Amino acid sequence: MNTPIHCEFEAQALAAMLEYRWPHAVEPTLREHVAGCASCSEVVAMADTFAAARQETHSIATVPDASRVWWIAQIRARREAAADAARPILVTQIAAFAWALGILVVCLGGVLAWFQPARVWISSMVVAHGFVIAMAAAIVLLLPTAAYFAMGKD
Amino acid sequence: MSRDLTFTELSRVDATNDRCTEFVMDEETFRAFYDRTARGVWAYLARITADRQLADELLQEAFYRFLRAAKTYESEAHRRNALYQIATNLARDARRRATVRPFADIAGDEIEHVAARDSAAATERLADFTRAMDGLNPRERAMLWLAYAEGASHREIAATLGLGQRSMKTMLSRARRKMAALLGHAEVKR
After folding, report:
1. Is residue B44 packed enough to be buried (19+ CB in 10 Å), middle (13-18) or exposed (0-12)?
2. Structure confidence by residue, pLDDT tens digits, B109-125
3. pLDDT digits (tens, 9 = 90+) for A35-67
4. How far apart are CA B179 and CA B176, in angstroms?
5. Hey, what domains does chain B have and what are their CATH numbers?
6. Inside any domain, residue A79
7. Which residues of B touch A61 (CB under 8 A)?
8. Measured between beta carbons, which residues in chain A are less than 8 angstroms from residue B151?
9. Considering CB atoms only, which of A5, A22, A42 is closest to B186?
10. B47, B101, B118, B172: which could form a disulfide with B122 (CB 3.0–4.6 Å)?
11. How does DSSP assign A68-137, residue by residue?
């Protein structure tokens, strides 16, 4: 059978099937057309097959109760809200720990003798390349912050 | 990372709870909408994934994401289309991850076994249908199901599947012909 790709009556035939008007509650002209049109025949046969499959599939569907789905959604939304709320606090805690560690290192550096050459070298580097170091530090600090805010958006 | 929240965090959570967990829909509206659509969405998911268990999982996820989307819709049809769009994306993601089960291996039998309680003829017809659907790719399955089982328009199908509306008619015709060939039927109910 050489079925044409489209026929202008396909939509009417499909609508008649979906609205349960086929075959008795449609115009006789449409019925006659479908009988002689391979494309429309195919549409009607397809709609009939899918309607039966839909009915069968609906009959075996085991969907949970609406209240249960609603309740689970509420709990999950609360959990996600809690996780979102906890995230900035965690970041702040990590930053505070890093600062504390840095201050500890500086304090120890002032006291310990073996750290003195390193302190001198760091001082000279800061004087010589202060701007570059400041920029690098800014990038190191800003990149994670930017990434955090970018990923934090839903 | 999972840990108990501190009191400070809890107070902050409480403050944000009302805002964060407030769905656009109230419970009563949701229940009515769910009762009208859940079976249809499940059937759609079961047919396009060919995996009943996956359909169960994706159904709940689809409704959750729908609630969290915080969008208002002009009409019931828009709301329904949005839900099917979410379901389609979830099925697509699941297929990409393929974490649950391979699709092809369990494709046909899964749904048929459950339907075995019905008459032999109906079961056989459903088995034929399922086998034919297995011969299509997931997009073709989705297109045909939306068009012929759900009665969606070309525009709605294109929006749901993220495809161009102009080519929808041709794509649908091709999928239909492929399905007809797989079913091996051309008879018309007169």
Report:
1. buried
2. 555 554 445 567 777 88
3. 999 889 999 999 999 999 998 888 888 899 999
4. 5
5. 24-101 (1.10.1740)
6. no
7. 38-39, 42-43, 46
8. 14, 18
9. A42
10. B118
11. HHHHHHHHHHHHHHHHHHHHHHHHHHHHHHHHHHHHHHHHHHHH-GGGHHHHHHHHHHHHHHHHHHHHHH
What amino acid occupies position A103? I
Task: Read off the pTM.
Answer: 0.69
Chain position carrying tokens 């965090």: B9
A131 and A95 inside one domain = yes
Residues sharing a CB contact under 8 Å with residue B113, sequence separation 6 or more, in sequence order: none
Give residue for tokens 């997009």.
Answer: B139
**Tokens representing B44?**
């759609």
Whether A57 and B186 lie within 8 Å, measured CB to CB: no
Is A60–B185 a contact, with Cβ atoms under 8 angstroms apart? no
Q: How far is A33 from chain B (nearest CA, A)?
A: 12
Asked whether residue A88 falls in the same domain as residue A146, the answer is yes
For residue A86, which amino acid is it?
A
Chain B residues whose beta carbon lies within 8 Å of the beta carbon of residue A84: 16, 20
User: What span, in angstroms and rounded, lies between the C-alpha atoms of B56 and B91?
Assistant: 11
In percent, how much of chain B has pLDDT > 90?
47
Q: Do B59 and A43 touch (CB under 8 A)?
A: no
In a domain, A69, yes or no: no
Phi-psi region of B151 (alpha: psi -120 to 50; beta: other; left: phi over 0): left
Distance CA A46, CA B172 (A): 12
User: Which helix or strand (DSSP H or E) is residue B28 part of?
Assistant: helix B27-49
Neighbours of A2 (CB within 10 A): 4
> Domains in chain A: how many in total?
2
Closest chain B residue by Cα to residue A73: B64
Q: Note whether residue A65 is domain-resident.
A: no
Residue A29 lies in a domain: yes
Domain with A142 in it: 84-152
What sign results for the dihedral spanned by CA atoms B93, B99, B100, B102?
positive
Same structural domain for residues A92 and A37?
Answer: no
